[in-house]
TrEMBL record:
InterPro entries: APOBEC/CMP_deaminase_Zn-bd, CMP_dCMP_dom, Cytidine_deaminase-like, DHFR-like_dom_sf, Eubact_RibD, RibDG_C, Riboflavin_Biosynth_HTPR. The lineage of its organism: Bacteria, Pseudomonadati, Pseudomonadota, Alphaproteobacteria, Hyphomicrobiales. Converts 2,5-diamino-6-(ribosylamino)-4(3h)-pyrimidinone 5'-phosphate into 5-amino-6-(ribosylamino)-2,4(1h,3h)-pyrimidinedione 5'-phosphate. Residues 5-126 form the CMP/dCMP-type deaminase domain. It comes from Agrobacterium rosae. CDD domains: Riboflavin_deaminase-reductase (cd01284). Gene3D superfamilies: Cytidine Deaminase, domain 2, Dihydrofolate Reductase, subunit A. The keyword Electron transport does not apply. GO terms for biological process: riboflavin biosynthetic process. This is Riboflavin biosynthesis protein RibD. It holds the Pfam family dCMP_cyt_deam_1. Its EC number is 1.1.1.193, 3.5.4.26. It comes from the Bacteria.
Length: 431
C-alpha cells in the first residue's frame, strides 16, 4: 500500500524531472511523469524539447506492458484534446494505468477537468493537488500566461548594503560578485525576454545576452522601454539586433497611437504568432542543471520582419548616448533598418498581453529603478529576486526602488540563497 510519504516522494521526483527541459518546450509546459509499480519507479519522462511528445506518452512507451496496473505521478493534468498527438489521458487509459496522481490542474480551457473525467470514466483512480505549491512554482510561466494572459514577470534587483543600485552618472556599476552574475546569466537563459528602460540602456550600454560558454544561443529577446525612441543606433543592443532579437517599445497614450497598435493584433487584423519557449526560473534549479542540457536555441524565434536581417553599422562617430533630433518616424525607420522591431502600445499591461499572445511565458525585468517601480505599482510583478551585496556605494548612490524591509505585503518569502559574498532573497505573489 502506497503511503502519503511515498506519494510525495514520487511526485517530488516528477517535479524534479520536469525541470530538465524548462525553457526548451516551445509554448507547451515542461511536464514530468513518473510511473511507479510495486513501490519502484519503472519509467520517467519529461516533455520533449520542442514540446512533443508529451511526458506521459514517453513514460508509457518506455514502460510498455509494465505500465498496466501502475501509478502515474504527473505534474500537470493530462491533456484531453487532440492536437498534433492524441490525448495523454487516453494513452494512460490504453496502457492500463490503475491510478493517476497530479500536482496541478490545467487551466487551459481545452483540458481543464476533461483529462480527469476521461480517466475516471475508465475506472482509473484520480488524486489531485499533491505538492500543488511546488508544482505551480515550476509551472509558473505557463500558468500565468494561461490564467492572466501575460508572462510570468520576474523582477531582479541588485542592491548594495546601503540600499543603492548604482552611482549617479557612472553607468554600469558592479554591485554583486561573479557568483551572482553567473546565476543571473543562468536566469536569463531560462527566460523568453529581458526588459530594461531607456535610462539603463543608455547609461550602461548593456548587451543583455547570456554570457556562459555553451549557452549563448539561449539569450532572451531584449526589450527596451523607450517612449521617445532614444536608443542610440551605435548601442550594443542595436548593433547586435541581427543576432539576438531587440524590441523597442514606445508606450504612449491611445490618442498618440495608430489603430494598429492593439495588443496581440497585427495591422491586418490577425493574431501575431511567435513560438518561444515557456520557462520557469528557480535559481537553485539553475545551479543544479548541467549547462549541456540547454541545447535548444532561441535564435529560431526571431522577431517578425527583423528576424533575418543583419545589423547595419551606424554612421561613424555615433556612439552610445541619447539620440538627438529627428522625428519618431525617421528614428523608427533607422531602428527597423538596423534589425530592431519597434512596438507601440498604450500600457505595460497591453505590452504583456502582446508578449503572451506571442507565446512568451517568462519575462525578466532587470532595470532600472523607474521601470521596477512602474511594474510594482501596476501589480505586474510575480516574483522578486533581491540580490544584496556587502559593498557600500556611499555618496552619489542611486536609491533602490525596493528594499527587503518594504516588500509589498502580497508577496511571501520563498527562500534565501548565498552566492559568494552576496545573498539572494526570493519572494513570490500567489497565482
Amino acid at each position: 500500500m502506497t503511503t502519503r510519504a511515498d506519494d510525495e516522494r514520487f511526485m517530488a521526483r516528477a517535479i524534479e524531472v520536469s525541470c530538465r527541459h524548462t525553457g526548451l518546450t516551445d509554448t507547451n509546459p515542461s511536464v514530468g511523469c513518473v510511473l511507479v509499480k510495486d513501490g519502484e519507479i519503472i519509467a520517467e519522462a519529461v516533455t520533449a524539447i520542442g514540446g512533443r511528445p508529451h511526458a506521459e506518452r514517453q513514460a508509457l512507451e518506455f514502460a510498455g506492458e509494465a505500465a498496466r496496473g501502475a501509478t502515474a505521478y504527473v505534474t500537470l493534468e493530462p491533456c484531453s484534446h487532440f492536437g498534433k498527438t492524441p490525448p495523454c489521458a487516453n494513452a494512460l487509459v490504453d496502457f492500463g494505468v490503475a491510478r493517476v496522481v497530479v500536482a496541478v490542474d490545467d487551466p487551459d480551457e481545452r483540458v481543464s477537468g476533461r483529462g480527469y473525467q476521461i480517466l475516471r470514466d475508465a475506472g482509473i483512480v484520480v488524486e489531485t493537488g499533491l505538492l500543488r505549491a511546488e508544482g505551480e512554482r515550476v509551472l509558473a510561466g505557463y500558468l500565468t500566461r494561461k490564467v492572466k494572459n501575460r508572462p510570468h514577470v520576474i523582477l531582479k534587483l541588485a542592491v548594495s548594503s546601503d540600499g543603492m543600485i548604482g552611482r549617479v552618472g557612472e553607468g554600469q556599476v558592479a554591485i554583486t560578485g561573479p557568483e551572482s552574475r553567473q546565476a543571473v546569466h543562468e536566469l536569463r537563459a531560462r527566460c523568453d525576454a529581458i526588459l530594461v528602460g531607456i535610462g539603463t540602456a543608455v547609461a550602461d550600454d548593456p548587451e543583455l545576452t547570456v554570457r556562459i560558454a555553451g549557452l549563448e544561443h539561449r539569450s532572451p529577446v531584449r526589450i527596451v522601454l523607450d517612449r521617445r525612441l532614444e536608443l542610440p543606433l551605435g548601442s550594443k543592443l542595436v548593433r547586435t539586433a541581427g543576432d539576438v532579437g531587440v524590441v523597442v517599445v514606445r508606450i504612449a497614450s491611445n490618442a498618440e497611437l495608430p489603430p494598429s497598435a492593439l495588443p496581440g493584433i497585427s495591422p491586418t487584423g490577425g493574431e501575431i504568432g511567435w513560438a518561444l519557449a515557456s520557462s520557469y526560473v528557480s535559481l537553485s534549479a539553475s545551479n543544479a542543471k548541467n549547462a549541456s542540457e540547454h541545447i535548444a536555441s532561441k535564435s529560431s524565434a526571431k522577431l517578425g520582419r527583423s528576424a533575418n536581417r543583419e545589423s547595419i553599422s551606424p554612421p561613424v562617430g555615433e556612439m552610445p548616448g541619447r539620440a538627438e533630433g529627428g522625428s519618431h518616424t525617421q528614428k523608427r525607420t533607422q531602428l527597423e533598418t538596423s534589425g530592431v522591431e519597434v512596438l507601440e502600445t498604450p500600457t505595460l499591461q497591453s505590452l504583456l498581453t502582446i508578449l503572451a499572445n506571442r507565446g512568451m511565458s517568462e519575462l525578466l525585468v532587470e532595470g532600472g529603478a523607474h521601470v521596477a517601480k512602474s511594474f510594482l505599482e501596476a501589480g505586474l510583478v510575480d516574483r522578486i529576486l533581491l540580490f544584496e551585496s556587502p559593498i557600500i556605494i556611499g555618496a552619489g548612490g542611486l536609491e533602490s526602488p525596493l528594499h527587503r524591509a518594504d516588500i509589498p505585503q502580497e508577496f511571501t518569502f520563498v527562500g534565501e540563497t548565498t552566492y559568494g559574498p552576496d545573498r539572494c532573497f526570493e519572494f513570490e505573489r500567489p497565482l
